[in-house]
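Recall that a protein's primary structure is simply its ordered list of amino acids. Everything else, from secondary elements to tertiary packing, is in principle encoded there. The following example makes that idea concrete.
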Amino acid sequence: MDTYSKIKFHPAQKSLFFSTLKKRVDDYFEQTNKSRYGNKAMTIKSIVLLSAYIVPFIILLFTNPPLWISLILWVVMGLGISGIGMSVMHDANHGAFSKNPTVNKWMGYTINLAGVGVLNWKLQHNILHHTYTNVPEVDEDIKDRKVIKLFPDSGATWFHRFQWIYAFFFYGILTFYWVLIKDFLQFYTFIKSGLLRQSIAENRKLLLGLIGIKVIYFGLLFVLPVVVFNIPFLEILLGFSLMHFTSGLMLTVIFQLAHSVEGTHYPVANSKGVIENDWAIHQLETTVDFSPRNKWLGWYVGGLNFQIEHHLFPKVCHVHYAALAPIVKETAEEFGLNYCVNDTFMIALKSHIASLRKFGTPHFNEAIG
């Protein structure tokens, strides 16, 4: 059953918020004579982050350093691949990295460096998350995984009381799970749900491509170091696990700080499959900016700390979000809408932990159920 196409946004009263905001953003780019896409700084950033992932691995292979240095290099690789995911691949697969679609296509393939397929990511993120943000039954980023509750849910049990402690371990193994299992589960689920609408032959070709990515990935990160460079398998396994834990923790925390925090809404469609809200206002109510003045953090996370701006204008490169934020805030306030910001990373993190505690409390969820 095609669950996703059955959910529609239909506000009781049409709002001029987004049309007004869009005109003001268009005026900003016209008046400043700036491109909506990436610039020289974006190119430099991409080179730095790709190097942070590739260069440490080359050093590992050709110098075979002591274990403690090796593990540090794997951590740097973890930070590098998460940086690529947030700052390079993310913009490219939204069509925002470059005006040239071919450049976006190839930079979007940098997700393969993490052993992950690009099509599944586009379906999960560009369609499900960006269209149905914080809608529990369809937003893959907060969907019920049984172990962690990321939205108010009467199904919380006794062990969810402790999720604010153990959730971060599961965040850390996310990319490892994605490489091994999630890609295949999603591929099957998206076909079954009707989201992936292709012929059997086309789906078979996609599946073979996905398997090929995994074979090459594990061949490069395990077979090459162990067989060709004689590095002990257990050392590679330990470093590989540390890399994925680093990247998984970083990626998941950054994304959760924008949606699973205090003040965000978790709308549910009515019996007719309608969410009674304007789509753009829905984005404001389900999304929060954080740490907007921290330029170093903003550089590394690809502007995902300006998540409101990203959700409203996903085809604009993140290098422009800081400039667009005052325009969005002013327009939202003009229309009487709430523009949510957590001023620092730590405030946002504490708010996420508070949400985990709240959603993991059965009595709280029963009261709202």
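DSSP finds 15 helices and four strands in the chain. Residues 4-368 form one domain.
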